[in-house]
Amino acid sequence: MLRKNCGKVVIMAKPIVAIVGRPNVGKSTLFNKLIGERRSIVEDTPGVTRDRIYAEAEWNEKKFILIDTGGIEPKSEDTILKQMRTQAEIAVETADVIVFMCDIRAGLLADDRDIAIMLKKSGKPIILAVNKADSIGSVPLEFYEFYELGFEREPIALSSLHGTGSGDLLDAILEECDFSECEADDEGVINVAVIGKPNAGKSSVINRMCGEQRLIVSDVAGTTRDAVDTLVKNEVGVFNFIDTAGIRRHSKVEDRIEKFSVLRANMAVERSDVCILMIDAQDGITEQDEKIAGIAHEAGKACIIAVNKWDAIEKDNSTTNAFKNKIRTSLAYMPYAPIIFLSAKTGQRVAHLYPMIREVFMQASRRITTGVLNDMLNDAMTRVQPPSDKGKRLKIYYMTQVSTNPPTFVIFCNSEELFHFSYRRYIENCLRDTFGFEGTPIRLVIRQKGDGSDT
Ligand code: GDP
Ligand code: GDP
Fold first, then answer.
1. Are residues 406 and 339 in the same domain?
2. Is 356's pLDDT higher than 90?
3. With bands split at pLDDT 50, 70 and 90, how would you rate the model's confidence at 248?
4. Terminus of the chain with fewer CB atoms < 10 Å: N or C?
5. 167 and 206 inside one domain
6. Ligand 2 atom having least distance to the Cα of 344
7. How confident is the model over 319-338, as a mean pLDDT?
C-alpha cells in the first residue's frame, strides 16, 4: 500500500457512487437533490459545454463523487435493456458503490430483474433504492416485492421528489464507502492529469517520464475501483500521475461512449493540480483537443500544452511558430498555458516537463497581498480609464485575492453592468504582466457595492 511505502504520501481519492436504473425512475431527480445547490465560480468560456453528470456530494462531513449514469447515455435507438447494460458496465467499472433505483409506482419489472442480475455480478456493494414512495409515514405493500431481487442490504424506500428517505440512503452510502485513505496528507505531492485524445501518446509520455524513477504503481488505496496512479519522486519533486490505468487501457465502454471517456478525463482533472494536454503533432490541433482543453480550463487547473510526436514532423525554421500560432488561435481562452514540443519516441524534451509542472503549480499557488494588488490596480486605471456608458462611469474601489489554484480575485466596483468584458480582460492582462501567473487560469469576480447609483 502506498501509505507504507512512502510515509506520509497518500493518494487522495473520493469514493465514487453511481445511480443506475431504468429511464424515468427518478435518477436525475435524486442526483439533483443529493448534490444540492453546489454553485461554484465559473467563468463563461464560449464553445465549452459541460454536462453535469457527476458532482461532489457531502453528508455528515464526508465527501463522495456521485454519478448520474442516466446522463451519460446518448439519445439513441438502443433498446432500454441495451442502455441499461451500458449504464451497468459504467457503474461497475467506475463506481465503488452502486445505487440501484426502482420505481414503486411502476412496480418490479422484468427490466429491473435483468439489471439486478448484471449488477450482482460486479461484486460491488449495491443499495436498492425504491423511489416514488411519496406517502409519508407508511410504507406501501408494493415495497415488499422488491425484496425479491435478493440484495444483501435491505431496500430503502424514498421519495426523491419530497426528499423523504434520502437521509437513510445517504447513511447507507456512507456505510458502504471506504473513507480510510481520504484524510490523506498529500502535502508536497503535485497531482498531474495527462489528458488528450486517444493515441496522442499519453501512455508513451508517462512511461518516458516515469522510466527508472517510477516508485510505485499501486491501486488507489482503500478503494475497489481500478484507478491506478503512478507516483514519481525525483530531484524536482514528488509527482502523482493520476489514473494511469484509464490512460493505458482502452476499455470497451470508453470506446463506445465518448461521454464516458470525457467523464473519466473530468474526474482525473478534478483530482489534479496540473494538467498536461497532449496533442498529436501529426494530427494538428483538432476539435476534440479543444473540448478536452476546455475541461482543464473550466476546472481552473494549471495547464501545459505538450505537442507530442515532434520527431515525426517535417520541419523547417517556421514550423514551430506556425504550430504555436494555430494552438493560440484554437485555444484562445488559454493563452496562459506554456507550449512544449516533445517526442516520447526519442525522449526529446520530455524531461523538461518536470520543472514546467512545478513552475505552473507554483504560479497557480501564488498569493498577492492586497496592498500590492491595489498599487497595480491604480496604475492600470491611470493608464486606461475605466469605461463609461450613458454618462455613467465605472468606479473600481479595490481588489483582493480570495483564493489560489486558480488565483481568484474579487473586484469591488460601483456597477457590474459597466464592467465590460474588454476592461475585465485588460485587468487580467495587467495582473499577468505584473505578476506572471504563467500556466494558470485567473478568475475575476466582480462585486457591486451599493445600488449602482454611485457613478
Ligand atoms: P431518470 O430518467 O431516472 O433520471 O428520471 P427523472 O429524474 O428524470 O424523473 C422522471 C420523472 O419522475 C419526473 O417526472 C420526476 O419528476 C418524477 N419523479 C422523480 N422522483 C419522484 C418521486 O419521488 N415521486 C414522484 N411522484 N415522482 C418522481
Ligand atoms: P495514448 O492513447 O494517448 O496513451 O497513446 P499511446 O502512448 O498509446 O501512443 C499511441 C501511438 O503513438 C503508439 O503507436 C505510439 O508508439 C505512438 N507514439 C507515441 N509517442 C510518439 C512519438 O513521440 N513519436 C512517434 N513517432 N510516435 C509516438
1. no
2. yes
3. low
4. N
5. no
6. 23
7. 96
Same domain, 116 and 200: no
Pocket test for ligand 2, best of 197, 202, 203, 204 (most atoms within 8 A of CB): 204
> Given its phi and psi angles, is residue 173 left (phi above 0), alpha (psi -120 to 50 degrees) or beta?
alpha
Q: Are residues 352 and 443 in the same domain?
A: no
Cα of 432 to ligand 2 centre, how many Å? 35
CA of 256 to the centre of ligand 2 (A): 21
DSSP string, 133-158: --SSS---GGGGGGGGG--SSPPEE-
Judge if 264 and 289 occupy the same domain. Answer: yes
State whether 348 and 377 are in the same domain: no
The pLDDT assigned to 215 comes to: 42
162-201: pLDDT as tens digits: 889 999 999 999 999 877 654 444 457 899 999 998 889 9
Q: 353 vs 15, 356, 406, 454, CA distance in Å?
A: 30, 5, 20, 50
Ligand 1 centroid – CA 140 distance (Å): 18
Q: Is the CB–ligand 2 distance for residue 204 below 6 Å?
A: yes
Q: Hey, whose CA ends up nearest to atom 2 of ligand 2?
A: 199
Residues 309 and 337 in one domain: yes
Instruction: Identify whether residues 17 and 155 lie together within a single domain.
Output: yes
Q: How far is the CA of 87 from the centre of ligand 1 (A)?
A: 18
Answer yes or no: is 455 within a domain: no
The predicted model scores a pTM of 0.69
Domain that holds residue 131: 13-176
Domain of residue 433, CATH code? 3.30.300.20
* Residue whose CB lies within 8 A of the most ligand 2 atoms, among 197, 199, 313, for a mutation test: 199
pLDDT at residue number 78: 60
List alpha helices for 249-338, DSSP H: 252-256, 258-271, 287-298, 319-330
**Paired residues of 271 in beta bridges:** none
**Residue where a domain terminates, one of 340, 364, 388:** 364
Q: Which ligand is nearest to the CA of 278?
A: 2
- State the residue for C-alpha cell 464560449: 46
Quick one: which ligand is closest to 84's CA?
A: 1
Integer Cα distance of 68 and 269 in angstroms: 18
Q: Provide the total of helices (H) and of strands (E) in the chain, helices listed first.
A: 14, 18
Domain count, the chain: 3
Q: Which amino acid is at 86?
A: T
Is any ligand 1 atom within 6 A of the Cβ of residue 159? yes
**Cβ of 199 below 6 Å from ligand 2:** yes
- d(CA 173, ligand 1 centre) in Å: 20
CATH number at residue 17: 3.40.50.300
Last residue of a domain, one of 143, 176, 209: 176
